[in-house]
Design goal:
Layout (H helix, E strand, L loop, with lengths): L13 H10 L6 H5 L4 H4 E6 L5 E8 L3 E4 L4 E4 L3 E3 L8 E5 L3 E6 L2 E10 L5 E8 L1 E3 L5 E2 L3 E8 L17 H5 L16 H4 L1 E8 L2 E7 L4 E4 L4 E5 L5 E4 L5 E5 L3 E7 L1 E9 L7 E8 L1 E3 L8 E8 L6 E2 L1 E2 L5 H4 L8 H15 L6 H14 L3 H31 L13 H18 L22 H15 L7 H10 L2 H24 L1 H4 L8 H8 L1 H43 L5 H21 L15 E3 L2 H9 L4 E6 L4 H11 L2 H10 L2 E6 L5 H9 L7 E5 L7 E2 L6 H11 L2
Parallel strand pairs: 26-28, 27-28
Antiparallel strand pairs: 1-2, 2-8, 3-7, 3-10, 4-9, 5-8, 6-7, 9-12, 10-11, 13-14, 13-24, 14-20, 15-19, 15-22, 16-21, 17-20, 18-19, 21-23, 23-25, 27-29, 29-30
Helix pairs in contact: 7-12, 7-13, 8-9, 8-11, 9-11, 9-13, 10-16, 12-13, 16-17, 20-22
């Protein structure tokens, strides 16, 4: 494969590479490039899987060649979850095209924590890297990807056996490692690594016990104890002497190996209580291995019997949500929430552009009651089928081990690009560039170039597709129930969401009194139709912006080319109605040409090092969150995505204001943000831990430890101020 001259070539799309080669032949003599090494010889990659749970990679770099640190990417295959790669600092310098970069010469080692799903027998992953030749001829190789298929060590399967309620995965991997005597084997699930028990030795005296396998230890100062529903009672622990330990992140700390027993005095009037609800939050590590995120266990201690109570996993959630998870809500309550959420969804900005299509069709039906009912029924059928398909598809993929949530389909750049093209096509139809049906109400049928009931049905489909980035009030509880409920109950919840979304049009179609309130059809509707085309164009522009954040400028260029070709196809389709076969053949050629940039779009990799740090915002990572909590800092965690319209509305109204920044400064809180615009297993696990069906998710962690408080998906300034003020106390 011919090498492309200049570093800029590595950043251009594949078609541009060909044009550049044809138009600007390299002036360097042929013998200069003939002596360059093939990419796999310039950068020889080797892998070592001898350590369970840790993949070690090594590049041997030839003289006069170097690798970019920021151009390395690692992606796990089926059943493999990769943690954050541990790379050494490189040589820092300013690159003419890439800005400030770090590079490696001679060789470099990388360590990547991983976990595997049950039944996985091979460690499969892809490794992408890019480097350059730094003396004449100075060229840069295009990004190169190697597929690795490696044997797993015999004990690797231990880490891949998750227990109910424990979402280690990539979150555990990214908490980093500690130096010291290595513990044998891969990290155990948290419940096996840290067994917690409690008993009452007397009415006012408790004994807490942690038992760890050999090679695991518990932090003393990362442990907090809390009584539930016990006003006026306090706990006074008497920690025994531990082992002094120098920790990479916490400094000089005290830890406990094997087993530790902690006497705790209950101070205050028990008032005849026979039972105490205790919640213990703590953190520990595998010596020489990985550190676990903050764990919370809950026990009910019988003060009279002296029976030993084993701690059950308690996710860091508000007490109301902690009581029994999402299924604590009854099916009837979930259905009512879904109905309300679907109704409110009609008012969300992501749905309004498509509803304009339906509004025009309803207005056009006028006094014809049969036509109005037909519009309503077929539109509702499209909505219900789409909700059922979308919901059951997400549930099936989640059951198969994929971390998906509400709206996560917009993490796929090809779907985002296709939706942008659909919105453009609908807008062009409403503007009169092309007509897919004889009546105004069939504009929505542009999705399938069909008229009549098909137009109403596919308008319902389109409404659901564009509604998926939105999370309206009431929807969060309903979706959380659906994602944890049996399949039949989940299907009912998704169908009820559809009923709520379609209910206004059902009411207009079947209640004559409501229909009489609508304006009469007339010539003015043609102007209205053309005006309503512009929300479609704005929706297409928004989707292109989302795509830019997912895949960068190259993806935007490709989807814009596809949109221009699509507009040309529709324009020529309209002109070809009265022409012969050659003209119709040209329509087919243009339609096929539209698919070419979409095919290339599906293969554009995520951009490297394009994220710009926001002032006053800390990027989410489990390790950083644990460090802030250990330091006694209140934290506001915001899980968001660029395609999430509700997220952007909250940012505009609350989180992006000067009042919010002043509140953070006043409370000493840290604003931590996780971006779920693209697939991110670490953020997916955080969402699952809080039973959140998707984004937005807002959690406030208090200053003195304890569970985080989950906020509403729709924020108000008063709600955020109250939560942060309480967290800072």
């Amino acid at each position: 494969m011919r090498l492309i001259t200049g570093r800029l070539a590595a950043r251009l799309p594949a078609l541009a590479f060909l044009l550049l080669g044809l138009l600007c032949a390299a002036p360097a003599p042929a013998q200069d490039t003939d002596n360059l090494l093939p990419v796999t010889e310039a950068y020889k990659l080797s892998a070592d899987t001898a350590t369970p749970g840790m993949l070690k990679l090594h590049w041997t770099i030839a003289p006069d060649y170097y690798l970019y640190r920021g151009r390395m990417k690692f992606k796990g295959g089926d059943g493999v979850t990769l943690g954050e790669a541990q790379l050494p600092d490189g040589e820092k310098h300013h690159d003419e095209y890439l800005g400030d970069v770090e590079t490696y010469h001679h060789g470099v080692d990388a360590s990547i924590p991983y976990s595997v799903a049950a039944g996985t027998t091979r460690l499969q992953l892809s490794v992408q890297y890019q480097g350059c030749h730094e003396v004449d001829p100075k060229i840069c190789y295009p990004p190169h990807t190697e597929k690795l298929d490696l044997p797993l060590p015999a004990s690797a399967g231990v880490a891949a056996t998750p227990t109910t309620g424990n979402a280690l995965g990539a979150a555990l991997s990214q908490l980093g490692s500690r130096t010291g005597t290595a513990a044998a084997g891969a990290p155990l699930p948290a419940e096996q690594a840290f067994r917690f028990e409690a008993l009452a030795q007397g009415p006012q005296q408790l004994l807490l016990r942690w038992t760890m396998p050999k090679g695991y230890y518990l932090y003393r100062d990362q442990t907090t104890l809390k009584l539930g529903d016990a006003a006026g009672l306090t706990l006074k622990p008497a920690w025994p002497a531990g082992t002094a330990h120098r920790d990479e992140h916490y400094g000089d700390v005290t830890v406990y190996f094997d087993q530790v027993e902690l006497p705790v005095t209950v101070e205050g009037d028990l008032a005849g209580r026979r039972q105490l609800a205790l919640q213990a939050s703590f953190q520990g590590c595998q010596d020489g291995g990985l550190c676990y995120p903050l764990m919370t266990r809950a026990v009910d201690i019988d003060l009279g019997s002296g029976a030993v109570a084993s701690g059950a996993v308690a996710p860091e959630m508000p007490p109301a949500d902690l009581a029994g998870g999402p299924l604590q809500v009854s099916l009837v309550a979930a259905l009512l929430l879904a109905l309300g959420g679907g109704l409110v969804l009609n008012l969300m900005p992501c749905v309004l552009p498509v509803l304009s299509i339906k509004a025009v069709s309803v207005l056009e039906s006028g006094e014809n009651r049969a036509t109005a009912r037909r519009h309503a029924l077929f539109y509702t059928a499209g909505v219900l089928c789409s909700f059922a398909t979308l919901g059951l598809g997400i549930l099936a993929l989640r059951a198969a081990g994929h971390a998906l949530g509400w709206g996560s389909q917009l993490q796929q750049p090809l779907l985002v690009g296709a939706l942008a093209c659909v919105m453009l096509a609908v807008g062009l139809s409403m503007s009169g560039v092309v007509q897919f049906g004889a009546s105004l109400g069939n504009t929505g049928a542009g999705l399938a170039a069909r008229s009549g009931p098909a137009g109403d049905f596919f308008t319902g489909v389109l409404a659901v597709v564009v509604a998926s980035p939105c999370t309206a009030p009431f929807m969060g509880g309903a979706l959380a129930y659906a994602f944890a409920a049996p399949m039949l109950s989940a299907l009912l919840v998704f169908l009820m969401l559809g009923v709520g979304l379609a209910l206004p049009f059902l009411a207009v179609g079947f209640v004559p009194a409501l229909a009489r309130l609508l304006p009469k059809p007339g010539r003015w509707m043609e102007t209205l139709k053309q005006v309503l085309a512009f929300p479609m164009y704005l929706t297409a522009a928004w989707l292109v912006w989302v795509l830019a954040n997912q895949r960068g400028a190259d993806a935007v260029g490709l989807v814009l080319v596809a949109m221009v070709l699509l507009a040309m196809t529709l324009w020529w389709f309209e002109r070809s109605r009265s022409r012969g076969a050659p003209s119709k053949l040209m329509v087919a050629v243009l339609a096929l040409a539209t698919l070419v940039p979409m095919y290339l779009l599906a293969h554009v990799p995520p951009p490297s090092n394009t994220a710009v740090a926001e002032e006053g915002v800390v990027a989410y990572s489990p390790q950083k969150l644990a460090e802030l909590r250990a330091a006694g800092t209140p934290v506001f965690v915001d899980m968001t995505a660029d395609w999430c319209v509700t997220c952007k509305a909250n940012e505009h109204a609350v989180l992006g204001t000067q009042a919010f920044r002043d509140l953070l400064q006043r409370t000493g809180a840290v604003y931590m943000k996780g971006d779920w615009t693209d697939v991110n297993p670490t953020i997916s696990e955080f969402l699952q831990a809080y039973h959140s069906p998707g984004v937005p998710l807002y959690v406030v962690f208090p200053k003195h430890g304890g569970p985080g408080r989950k906020l509403s998906t729709v924020l108000t300034a008063a709600l955020v101020e109250q939560a942060l003020t309480e967290a800072a106390r």
